[in-house]
Amino acid sequence: MVKSSIIVPAQSTGSASRKRSMDQDDEHSDNNNAEKATDDNETETKKPRLEMSTASRRRGQRLFGVLLGTLNKFKDDSEKRSEGEKKRQEIDIKLHEKLANEKKELAEKMQADKERREQELNMLRVRDQRILDEKRDATNVRHKEYTANYLKTTTTPVLLYRPAKLTDDMEKKLSQQKEDAQEARKAYEERREQRMKEDEAEDKSALEAAEKRHYHQREQRDDDDNERGGDERDNGSMVGSPRLESPAPEDAVADRDE
């Protein structure tokens, strides 16, 4: 048998060695870069802090104080504004309630005025009827007094006559008619006096009602004036409510100029 052997060229061995050396150089370079970066970071972290001068420190304190003052001012203005809004809401609620009450009172007043006018018209109708009844009664009484001096026929229509010579029966009948006429006159006078008393009572009642109505109207006007004055005072107090404004401190202006 013939023994075989593999011959490796010399160039291949050289290229492998060069490749290993290049890898080692790259690894060494990476290590150097990492160490350099670590040194740079340590250098940056170890930089000393810049010391601020006294003027700069005071200036920063003033600016911080101005900032706190502005924030506190805004907070105070916001609280005052919220209180003002609450007061305005309360005033609006009061105004709505007042408007509803005024509408209700106006409706009640209109209904009362309507009933009063109807009552007055009814009183006028009753009085007119009473006057007509009184005139009718007066006419009947006068007619009865006039016809009491005459005799009446039993025929239709009734005729009045007076004989020149009266019998006893005729005289009795005329006397009875005169007595009836006197009784009718007396009853008429009583009714007339009663009607006059009723008229006086109605007039007095109407006068008292008018005075009472006038008194209530005057009280209502006074109450409305008082409520209107109170609302104006409340609205006046709301007019002077503070307004939110940005402060302009002189220290901050001086610092900016510096």
Key words describing this protein structure:
258 residues, mainly alpha, two-stranded antiparallel ribbon, 4 helices, disordered C terminus
SSE diagram, text form:
Layout: H1 10-45, H2 54-147, E1 151-152, E2 160-161, H3 168-239, H4 250-257
Antiparallel strand pairs: 1-2
Helix pairs in contact: 2-3
Structural class: mainly alpha
Largest sheet: 2 strands, antiparallel
- The sequence of SSEs as H and E is HHEEHH
Number of strands: 2
Ends apart, CA distance between termini: 105 Å
Mean pLDDT: 75
Computed over alpha carbons, the radius of gyration is 61 Å
Please estimate the helix content.
over 70%
Count of DSSP helices? 4
The largest beta-sheet arranges its strands as 1-2
Low-confidence stretches: 238-258
Molecular shape? rod-shaped
Fraction in beta strands: under 5%
Short synopsis of the structure:
The protein has 258 residues and is mainly α. 81% of the residues lie in helices and 2% in strands.
Explained architecture:
By secondary structure, the protein is an all-alpha fold. It is 81% helix and 2% strand. A two-stranded antiparallel sheet has the order 1-2. α2 runs antiparallel to α3. The longest helix is centred in the middle third of the chain and has 94 residues, at 54-147. The two termini are 105 Å apart.
